[in-house]
Amino acid sequence: MMGRGLLIGCATASILVVPGAGAAQEARPPPRTQQRERQPTDSLRQDSIPVPIDTAEARALGLPAQPSRSFPTADSIITALLELEDYGATRYAADSLTLFAETSEIRLTGSSLVEREGSILEADSVTFQQDDCLLVASGKPALFDRETVLVGGGMRYDTCERTGIVAEALTKFEQQGIDWYLTGELAVDSGSTRIYGSGTDVTTCQLATPHYHFHASNVKWVSDNVLVARPAVLYVKDVPVLWLPFIWQDMRQGRRSGLLVPRFGFNDLVRPNTGYRRHVSNIGYYFAISDYLDFQASLDWFSGNYVALNGQMKYRWLNRFLAGSIGLSRIFEEGAEGQPGSKSLRLQWMHQQSFNQRTRLTANVDYATSTRVIEQNSVDPLVQTATLGSRVNFSKQMDWGTLTIGASRSQDLANGTITQSLPDISLSPAPVNFGEAVTWSPSFSFSNNQRLNQFPGVVIETSTIAGITADTLFPDDRTTGFRLATPIRVGRWNWRNDFSVTDFVTNRPSQPVTIVDPVDSSTSTVYYGEDFSTGVDWNTGINLPSLFPSTWKLQPSVGVQNTTSGPFMIRNRQTGGAFVSQGKRLSFSASLSPTVFGFFPGVGPISRIRHSFSPMFSWNLAPAADVPEAYARAVSRPGTTPQLRSPTAHSISLGLSQTFEGKLRAAADDTTSDPRDAPKVKLLSIQTSAITYDFQQAKEPGRSGWTTGSIQNTFTSDLLRGFTLSLSHELWDGPIGYDSTRFDLFLRSVSARFTLTGATFANIFSLFTGGEVTAEQEDQAADPQDRLQPLGGAMSAPRSLDPAIDQLTARPTAGGGFRTSVTYDEQRTRTRIVDGEAIETPSLRNLGLQIGFSLTPGWSVSWNTNYNITQKEFGQHLLRLDRTMHRWRATFSFVKAPNGNFAFNFFISLQDQPEMKFQYDQRTVRGR
User: Which residues contact 327 (CB under 8 A, 6 or more apart)?
Assistant: First the structure.
């Protein structure tokens, strides 16, 4: 680029001199060296005014935005010369011009300006010697070539060999959106593509006295390709802090195959103590296979713990609406005490594809052969406390309905239990209208759920036979379900129809069954190694038209329900595999949910408060009915008496919903807004769960009608972001529904969630001072279409075993605002009286905190912790301190996982080149 700009000194065949300005037309003779082919003129570009690239920082460094002067307006003769074809034009202007015909020398003196092929050279004086092919510019020369500016103390250029030297040069180049500044003695080769430097400084700091720079004895810059400097010394201000044998920077745009940047700390090279275990990650190579596909292979090594081989392939084909990634990781644990280490293979696949506007496939698969290896060797709390979840979903929307086919699988890292659903099918045809009054809305669903490798169940608890001990196994179970719904609407009447089949099989050992021989009354204990059950059910009912919809909201309903609990037809071990059925009985129900409003005077910025009071009544009645003996024995537990009569069901329940809403006052100077449209704020909402009273149960001797054992109240408010308070109380001290049971309100659980920000305190202050009150909004969720990330991203948060420490801790909110999220959970148990002695169970209390704030504009802090108040110990810590400097960032991170693993990291990195950092990284894995 520089060489092309310096070609302005080529010899001319004829010269036309105009006072104060000049132009030359040059018929191209056969060149002595290979000449650069002239590029077509850009009709949109001004001939002599380059694109301004200056900034305040660039001016401070001495890089001008554009030439300090411009060419005079061309007259008709110069314009005609410039328009001649097959000529290369050179324009120049100066205070004076001297032509030495005998020596073929042109000398421009005083405010010299030369332009050729869009490149402009400005200097105090410019001399061109045609015979020697030499161009010399002195007096603060500055070269403007499109978007590049180069200044220096002096320039010498050989126009025949196309080589040049710039003394005391200063220029800049862009790499990945970052401006790099280069100063020193520069030389350009004959191809105008290579620049060599001596005693060169490189920095991204735009200040006149940079905060940092790299000083290199030798620099080679291949234009738009690569920059190499050696040896290099890093200076902070004028203090040398780091020596590097070389610096290599790829200048090419786009993806390129090459080595990955390894992650390791200084202490991994110089071990601080004999107990420290080195670890290096991301050692590998990246392959840019095509525009749609790439692949990388890497190795992670943790001394004394494990070696992991990783492979990842990403693909993205926009025209096919196809994107995703596949990752494979093989972990080899090191053995201990002469025993071989464990192995684990982990597969992660994320895929998104749209076949057309109505057909879509998504997949998010995370599978591992050994969850224990992942849980034990990770320092990431989100990995240790989570499950490996997989989900594949295919959906197709047709003119007559929507079909969805999916599958899911999850592996619990704590105990290895696997829960999966394969397949999961749903079909929702479009409603079928028979005229305006009748609508049929069928739907179909099928699911096959399994739970594998569950917590061990005991096959034989004790044995009287010598030599036989208790046996255990990891049981599995399967539940397959089918459901067909065919509701029909006739005018304002709705007829419900549901058919369902559920099949259950398990090999979990059941409780032993004692069998009495009717002949000699002898007993024997039988252990069943498996169990099964199949249920077929049908439910129907009619929702009558709603009455008083604007006031009382009365909704009656008539249904047909089973005689007793359980499916209509069932087969299990008690029936010998044969189906038995029960009867049906009518049921009647009604619900009532009116809303009553009350108004109160406002306070401060609130003009008025509205209280909405919404009780919710429901009534249910089902007459008594007989239960077939075969069915009663099928559903009764072994050793219990079958219930041959289903009593009358007659109950009523009551729930409550309350909301206090405030209308904000309009501004004093606002005379255009309608007061009825003033914004509203939910001050407090209270949701109270329903309590139920059974009239039929109350008629039984020694019984009461109460059937609800606990009541829950939930409080929310818009004044406090994310505020939720849930209180659960036990109502009775003893068995529910007996006259001897005493009513005793006992707080069983407390759950609270809220977030404090600067706006929170401002709202509270405004309530007392009359300022503006605003509802705090939750953070906007990310666009689901923008969630496709490489492994370790956010699509379903699959995370690698050894991520960078700075990826584990959340940073403070943008802008450095204060933010604290608090969670509190408490579980309590009543004091029990056993043999006259009070037995108390300690309550379980847990406190979670997430804090982020800025100490100063350059300092920020984030802390995420979980504290077990009962055991008085912390479960996890994620602490991070960030210090942002002009072009640097210093970070301190500490992570302690729930399993005891912890990591400590401190590093200073260059913001414009994060791989340039000094790092201390130490990790400890439990039990190793």
Answer: 310, 311, 312, 313, 346, 347, 348, 349, 791, 798
Closest CA to 65 of 73, 57, 74: 57
Q: Are 374 and 386 in contact (CB under 8 A)?
A: no
Contact at 8 Å (CB) between 922 and 904? yes
Mean pLDDT for 441-451 is 92
What mean pLDDT, rounded, does the chain reach? 78
Residue 1 confidence (pLDDT) above 50 = no
List 134's β-bridge partners, or say none. Answer: 129, 158
| Average pLDDT value for residue range 539-568 | 89
Instruction: List the one residue out of 61, 62, 63, 123 whose CA is nearest residue 92.
Output: 123
Closest CA to 148 of 188, 180, 189, 116: 180
pLDDT at 57 (0 to 100): 47
Tokens at residue 39, please? 């590029």
> Can you tell me the distance from the alpha carbon of 488 to that of 503, in angstroms, rounded to the nearest whole number?
28
Residue indicated by tokens 């009070």: 838
70 residue type, one letter:
S
pLDDT band at residue 6 using 50, 70 and 90 as cut-offs: very low
Tell me which H or E stretch contains 768.
Answer: helix 758-769
Strands 148-151 and 142-145 turn out to be antiparallel
Calpha distance 529→531 (Å, rounded): 7
d(CA 60, CA 912): 20
Q: What would the two tokens of residue 368 be?
A: 């591992």
pLDDT tens for each residue of 884-924: 877 787 888 888 777 677 777 777 777 776 666 666 666 66
Q: Nearest CA to 301 among 377, 382, 376, 381?
A: 377
Residue 500: enclosing H or E segment and its boundaries?
strand 493-506
Closest Cα partner for 809 from 769, 774, 846, 860? Answer: 860
Mean pLDDT for the stretch of residues 753-774? 69
Give Rg (Cα) of the chain.
Answer: 40
pLDDT band at 191 (very low <50, low <70, confident <90, very high): low
The model carries a pTM of 0.66
The pLDDT tens digits for 390-407 are 899 999 999 889 999 999
Long-range contacts of range 408-413, CB-CB < 8 Å, 24 or more positions apart?
Answer: 409/365, 409/367, 411/367, 411/368, 411/371, 411/387, 412/371, 412/387, 413/371, 413/374, 413/375, 413/383, 413/384, 413/385, 413/386, 413/387, 413/388
Confidence bin at 371 (pLDDT 50/70/90)? confident
Structure token pair of residue 120? 């402009």
- Residue-wise pLDDT for 782-805, tens only, equals 333 222 222 333 233 344 555 544
What are φ and ψ of residue 847, in 5° steps?
A: -125, 130
Output phi, psi for 79, to 5 deg. -65, -40
Helix (H) or strand (E) holding 219: strand 212-222
DSSP per position, 818-860: -EEEEEEEEE--PPEEETTEEE----EEEEEEEEEEEEETTEE
